[in-house]
């Protein structure tokens, strides 16, 4: 069983009014412990609603959401669910509560009634995990966007969550800030935390174990990044774009290049170099070995 | 523009004054304010000014930061001074010409008012410069704890203050941005009569409210996500503790207050 | 005619503990008809720089001249400002009127034009940014989607018919299709209005796609200024200040690492497509 299980979940906004509409339609999804799941979709595809359902901020109109077997509708388990599933939002400014970094990181453990000494240990560990320990006494509004978002993540880590959900957490950051945050969540994932990353950008999905593409409140595509990126035209019709390198790859294949599942510049260059060297007969042993994967496609 | 406001901003440091318990600082500041309103002799004001100067030195805060906090209020100070000179008609006349009737007492009174205000602002600035807003909120929450007995929502009030303090700089930045954006669309905030100027604020206020409500909404979600459920069962990472320097500081203040009252 | 900045210096919160130097000795001339991309890190001074171009920020020292008008002069500043349309980051946050049409008209109305002309310009601006006037004019701006709001805000500046269109991160926060639509709209606007465009962006690929000239900022200074080819031929310098490279450059670099001779000036995706096709002997 997954750490989070969604069973035929639907969510309706403005129920009973004229403006009522379903943001989610009959979505079933099982999130496995330790996996890096990426949920991609354009604006209004229902992915932010999905994020808020994962820790019980929103409750399904129909269907169930189970977190480690706990039903999010069970009010008595609300705190247990929320400390298991940490939710990081898009705008770092709007999730920092206090005027000092370390006090903000302490906010959640304070709410959980944890012993002051233990809170201090957790705060120090959380700040270290996001590389912000030297900013412990800084004022959040003096930090950059990327730094603020790292503080927000530290604030969730202090709850010692098992799942971290990032709802477009990098979309307001500059490239440097994005890279910082992605690096941190990759490391957290390698340390065993389940990651659910929600984004509009396909290129951010490359590093995921599994990609779920949302459209109009339903799951439109699902699979490994390689499987999903192979369906470029389907992605385009869902208002999503493939990364520039994958686009180039597809154009080259259309012109007759030997097919490949390469997603990054490095993989594509490797593939091209291999073809050229095979043709000129100077193929080296080591390049062969490295390319076994792409050659098999 | 708005970013230049420093009032209420913390100046990081590790001086004796910084290390005082925020409750001590708050109580000392209150005592200091009471004293300011009790005295009315110029040389006592001078004595208090010396005390303030020494406290600022102890806090290792450059004097110009304290002076800087007076700058936004300079017009109010000048107007208060002029008004007082003209309003008070008692005492020995010094000038009696046309509409001007100035007495020795009116000048003295005006000076008292200014001295009081300047010292008041300097004192509170010293407190806010050496105490983080959050520590101050904690101090208020702690000192108001007895009010919980009469069902006064002490925790909620403190949380509201914390959030307000946290978002003041954010909203000031936002106001600055919106103002610039409307200026770029030819908005004019500086000319015209009172009504025209008030109308000119609409393009700033509406977007500001829209954004503030959106922020409030998102903040509420973020706080829920981080297990906030009111003050019940909540612990604190930083527990305030009075230490020896608090006792010394308290003693100094008591001696100072008693001294001032005795000599004046 | 041009926007000229001469030895501009600017510091935020001068004289306080929070002093922050944002621009240092910046000199720059932007001519009519250029498409200038400005790149740099957050805090490199890009936004401060563009806010000087219409006189909303005044330099602490140095001069800003717009078409011969000295922007430090209070009386003529208004005339200069009318030539420079400045679209801030997340411009949809400045919408406030009851209807989209009224909001788009706000800037033109402040110029004191007659009603018929205001109406004509508003309709024109709607069509230039690709919003259907009949459908959107009477809607509340708060009912629009993110991308539509952004276009409405852009229309408000376009209606003022600026000679220089300055945009601070016009694509920030939009989804991929939204980004593409806005960038295409900006490129079309340049054609339609014949104005100069100055665009601040974090996206190397977007800047590379649209610009005729690129300015790189770092720590309040201009560190590079030239055509896209000139800038990206000096990739080392970009890496030195930790700016990312366009996707095409990364690929070209990876190919070079594997012994394939890619010329230094080949890094646009289309050029790479042709180059690789030739290398692999693919038919046209």
Features:
heterotrimer; A: 297 residues; Rossmann fold; 2 domains; 6-stranded mixed sheet; disordered C terminus; B: mainly alpha; 11 helices; 3% strand
A few lines on this structure:
The complex is a heterotrimer of chains A (297), B (264) and C (284). With 297 residues, chain A is α/β, with parallel strands linked by helices.
Description:
The complex is a heterotrimer of chains A (297), B (264) and C (284). Chain A has 297 residues and is α/β, with parallel strands linked by helices. Helices cover 39% and strands 21% of the residues of chain A. Chain A contains 13 helices and ten strands. In chain A, β7, α7 and β8 form a beta-alpha-beta unit. In chain A, α5 (116-129) crosses α6. The two termini of chain A are 32 Å apart. Chain B contains eleven helices and two strands; from the N terminus they run αααααββαααααα. Chain B has a two-stranded antiparallel ribbon with strand order 1-2. In chain C, the strands form two sheets. Chain C has a six-stranded mixed beta sheet, sandwiched between helices. Chain C has a four-stranded antiparallel beta sheet with strand order 2-1-4-5, covered by helices on one side. Chain C is globular, with a radius of gyration of 21 Å. Chain C starts with a strand and ends in a 5-residue tail after the last helix. Chain A binds chain C through residues 42-44, 142, 144-145, 171-172, 174-177, 200-202, 239-241, 243-245, 247-248, 251-252, 255-257, 265-266, 268-270, 272-273, 275-276, 279, and chain C through 18, 41-43, 145-147, 172-178, 180, 202-203, 205, 242-244, 247-248, 250-251, 253-255, 257-260, 269, 272-273, 276-277, 279-284.
Question: What is this structure's SSE topology?
Answer:
The complex is a heterotrimer of chains A (297), B (264) and C (284).
Chain A: E1 4-13, E2 21-31, E3 36-40, H1 47-54, E4 62-67, E5 70-71, H2 78-84, E6 85-88, H3 101-105, H4 107-111, H5 116-129, H6 145-157, E7 163-167, H7 175-190, E8 194-199, E9 210-215, E10 218-223, H8 225-229, H9 232-237, H10 244-254, H11 265-280, H12 285-290, H13 292-295
Helix pairs in contact in A: 5-6, 6-7
Chain B: H1 16-19, H2 22-38, H3 42-59, H4 63-70, H5 74-87, E1 93-97, E2 100-103, H6 104-130, H7 133-143, H8 154-184, H9 194-200, H10 202-225, H11 244-263
Antiparallel strand pairs in B: 1-2
Chain C: E1 2-12, E2 20-31, E3 35-39, H1 46-52, E4 61-66, E5 69-70, H2 74-83, E6 84-87, H3 100-110, H4 115-128, H5 133-136, H6 146-158, E7 164-168, H7 176-193, E8 196-200, H8 204-210, E9 213-218, E10 221-226, H9 228-233, H10 235-240, H11 247-257, H12 269-279
Parallel strand pairs in C: 3-8, 3-9, 6-7, 7-8
Antiparallel strand pairs in C: 1-2, 1-4, 4-5, 9-10
Helix pairs in contact in C: 3-4, 3-6, 4-6
């Amino acid at each position: 069983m997954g750490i989070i299980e969604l069973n035929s979940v639907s969510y309706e906004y403005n129920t009973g009014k004229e403006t009522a509409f379903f943001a989610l339609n009959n979505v079933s999804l099982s999130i496995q412990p330790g996996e890096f799941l990426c949920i991609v979709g354009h604006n209004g595809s229902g992915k932010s609603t999905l994020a808020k359902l994962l820790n019980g901020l929103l409750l399904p109109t129909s269907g169930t959401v189970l977190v480690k077997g706990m039903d999010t509708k069970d009010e008595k388990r609300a705190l247990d669910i929320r400390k298991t599933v940490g939710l990081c939002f898009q705008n770092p400014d709007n999730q920092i509560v206090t005027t000092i970094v370390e006090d903000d990181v302490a906010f959640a453990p304070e709410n959980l009634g944890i012993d002051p000494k233990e809170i201090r240990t957790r705060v120090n560990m959380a700040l270290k995990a996001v590389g912000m320990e030297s900013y412990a006494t800084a004022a959040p509004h003096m930090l950059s966007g990327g730094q603020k978002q790292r503080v927000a993540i530290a604030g969730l880590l202090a709850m010692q969550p098992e799942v971290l959900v990032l709802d477009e957490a990098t979309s307001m950051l500059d490239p440097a800030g994005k890279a910082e945050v992605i690096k941190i969540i990759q490391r957290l994932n390698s340390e065993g935390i389940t990651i659910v990353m929600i984004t509009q950008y396909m290129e951010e999905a490359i590093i995921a174990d599994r990609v779920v593409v949302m459209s109009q409140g339903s799951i439109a595509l699902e699979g490994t990044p390689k499987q999903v990126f192979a369906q470029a035209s389907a992605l385009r019709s869902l208002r999503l774009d493939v990364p520039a390198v994958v686009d180039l790859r597809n154009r080259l294949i259309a012109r007759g290049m030997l097919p490949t599942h390469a997603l990054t510049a490095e993989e594509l260059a490797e593939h091209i170099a291999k073809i050229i060297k095979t043709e000129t007969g100077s193929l080296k042993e080591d390049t062969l070995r490295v390319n076994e994967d792409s050659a098999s496609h | 523009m708005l970013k230049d406001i420093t009032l209420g901003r913390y100046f990081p440091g590790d001086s004796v004054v910084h290390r005082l318990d925020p409750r001590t600082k708050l109580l000392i500041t209150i005592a200091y304010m009471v004293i300011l309103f009790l005295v009315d002799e110029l040389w006592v004001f001078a004595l208090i000014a010396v005390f303030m100067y020494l406290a600022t030195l102890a806090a290792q805060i450059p004097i110009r930061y304290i002076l800087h906090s007076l700058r936004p209020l300079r017009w109010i100070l000048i107007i208060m001074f002029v008004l007082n000179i003209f309003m008070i008609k008692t005492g020995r006349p010094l000038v009696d010409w046309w509409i001007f009737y100035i007495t020795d007492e009116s000048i003295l009174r005006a000076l008292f008012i200014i001295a009081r205000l300047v010292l008041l602002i300097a004192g509170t600035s010293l407190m806010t410069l050496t105490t983080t807003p959050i520590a101050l909120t904690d101090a208020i929450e702690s000192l108001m704890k007895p009010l919980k007995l009469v069902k006064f929502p002490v925790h909620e009030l403190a949380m509201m203050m914390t959030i307000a303090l946290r978002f003041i700089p954010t909203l000031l930045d936002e106001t600055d941005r919106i103002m610039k954006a409307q200026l770029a669309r030819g908005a004019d905030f500086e000319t015209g009569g009172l009504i025209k100027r008030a109308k000119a604020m609409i393009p700033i206020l509406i977007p500001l409210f829209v954004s503030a409500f959106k922020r409030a909404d998102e903040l509420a979600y973020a706080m829920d996500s981080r297990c906030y459920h009111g003050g019940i069962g909540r612990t604190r990472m930083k527990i305030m503790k009075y230490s020896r320097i608090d006792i010394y500081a308290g003693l100094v203040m008591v001696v100072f207050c008693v001294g001032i009252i005795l000599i004046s | 005619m041009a926007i000229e900045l001469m030895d501009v210096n600017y510091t935020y919160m001068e004289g306080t503990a929070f002093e922050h130097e944002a621009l240092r000795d910046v000199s720059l001339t932007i001519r009519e008809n250029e498409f200038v991309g400005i790149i740099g890190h957050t805090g490199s001074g890009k936004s401060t720089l563009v806010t000087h171009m219409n006189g909303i920020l005044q330099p602490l020292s140095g001069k800003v001249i717009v078409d011969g008008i000295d922007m430090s002069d209070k009386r003529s500043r208004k005339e200069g400002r009318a030539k420079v349309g400045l679209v801030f980051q997340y411009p949809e946050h400045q919408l406030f009127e009851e209807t989209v049409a009224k909001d788009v008209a706000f800037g033109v109305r402040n110029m004191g034009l007659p009603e018929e002309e205001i109406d004509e310009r508003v309709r024109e601006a709607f069509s230039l940014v690709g919003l259907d006037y009949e459908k959107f004019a009477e809607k509340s701006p708060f009912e629009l989607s993110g991308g539509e709001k952004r276009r409405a805000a852009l229309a408000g500046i376009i209606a003022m018919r600026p000679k220089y269109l300055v945009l601070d991160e016009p694509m920030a926060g939009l989804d991929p299709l939204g980004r593409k639509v806005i960038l295409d709209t900006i490129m079309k606007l340049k054609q339609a209005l014949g104005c100069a465009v100055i665009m601040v962006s974090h996206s190397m690929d977007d800047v590379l796609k649209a610009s005729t000239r690129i300015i790189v900022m770092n720590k309040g200074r201009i560190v590079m200024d030239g055509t896209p080819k000139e800038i990206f031929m000096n990739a080392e310098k970009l890496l030195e200040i930790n700016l990312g490279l366009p996707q095409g450059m990364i690929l070209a670099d990876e190919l070079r690492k594997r012994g394939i001779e890619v010329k230094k000036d080949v890094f646009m995706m289309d050029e790479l497509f042709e180059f690789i096709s030739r290398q692999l002997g693919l038919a046209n």
